[in-house]
Amino acid sequence: MIDANQLVVLVDGSSYLFRAFHGLPPLTNAEGHPTGALHGVIKMLTKLYDDYQPAYFGVVFDAKGKTFRHDLYSAYKANRPKMPEELACQIKPLHQLIEALGFALIIEQGVEADDVIGTLAARALKEHYQVVISSGDKDMAQLLTHADITLLDTMKNAITSHTNIAQRFKVDQLRADQVIDFLALVGDTSDNIPGIDKVGPKTAAKWLQQYDNIDTLIDNASKISGKIGDNLRNNLDTLKLSRTLATIKCDLPLTHTIADLALQPPKPPQTRTTLQHLRTKQHQISPPQPHPQRPPPQNPASPKHPKCNITPSPTQPNSPPSSPNLKKPNASASTPKPPHSTTNKPNSLASA
């Protein structure tokens, strides 16, 4: 059972933004300006907060411009179309509204939202918090090497923990600590990560089941027969690059602490200003409802730059539950519950 007072929820705001834009009917205000994505994101955020009532709640967005991955590989994400103007024009007021409602908003130049989330998750675990990451990006599954971190996809009504990684990727066997190598082998069309030609999910999972990781696979590349073996041997440098591109950084020197993610009091004047600019009625935006009995958040001492090592803490139990238990604390029968989880037979984790 999750203790809401020890819970950190990290939201992939960029994932929410695109899913709201593409998955919801378009809305406009009285002057015809698009507001659908803004309304969709705010509703998803407030529902998520109200469902879990976490002590700490951060919303992370990608910053404009290139990242360190573009420096490593100029074609990174080069296949993505330009953001539609009807979506781009909603981003600034969305950011303003998120802060006006009291949510912590985090945007870091030169890296991606995934890297910020990975770093905050690593810090939270080091401080002995439980972590829920809300994102539709299954690449985040590489962070699930600890029993106290789970991945929530609200759009698909699914929860992934380190017990059901293989099910998420639709393969027979796969551990969380193998996800980076898996992605490096199969590539990622959305991010334009090349991978190895002709290697699909089943082949990648089979190789990782046999050789455990990419390094051992490379050492035994001569044993892989056929055209696919030739593809592997001829593209070892590409494989290593793909692994670097797919790896979420968990050791950024962020100035934000976990304590900074506590919900702040809403700012009605700022909210009204933003809504007036959008010609949107204030009653259409509901602020989050903080837990009435929660004591003021504490500010535990935290390491400045923890290493990227999301592994079980020796001071915490590391035996996974039979299924992820993310029931909202003190939930009543009339309150909507978090999404239902389906799990595979638990995998044997080397790191958990």
Residues in β-strands, percent: 5-15%
Mean pLDDT: 83
Largest sheet: 6 strands, mixed
DSSP, total strands = 6
* Number of distinct helices: 12
What is the element string, with H for helices and E for strands?
Answer: EHHEHHEHEEEHHHHHHH
User: Strands across the major sheet, in which order?
Assistant: 3-2-1-4-5-6
Q: Unreliable segments (pLDDT under 50, ≥5 consecutive)? A: 299-309, 311-352
* Structural class by sheet pairing and helices: alpha/beta
Shape: globular
Would you kindly provide a written description of the structure presented here, covering whatever features stand out?
The protein has twelve helices and six strands. It has helices spanning 13-23, 36-52, 68-72, 85-100, 113-126, 165-169, 179-186, 201-211, 214-219, 226-234, 236-246, 268-278, and strands spanning 7-12, 56-62, 104-108, 130-134, 149-153, 158-160. The chain has a six-stranded mixed sheet, with helices on both faces. A hairpin with a 4-residue loop joins β5 and β6 (158-160). α1 (13-23) crosses α2 (36-52), α4 (85-100) runs antiparallel to α12 and α7 (179-186) crosses α8. It starts with 6 loop residues before the first strand and ends in a 74-residue tail after the last helix.
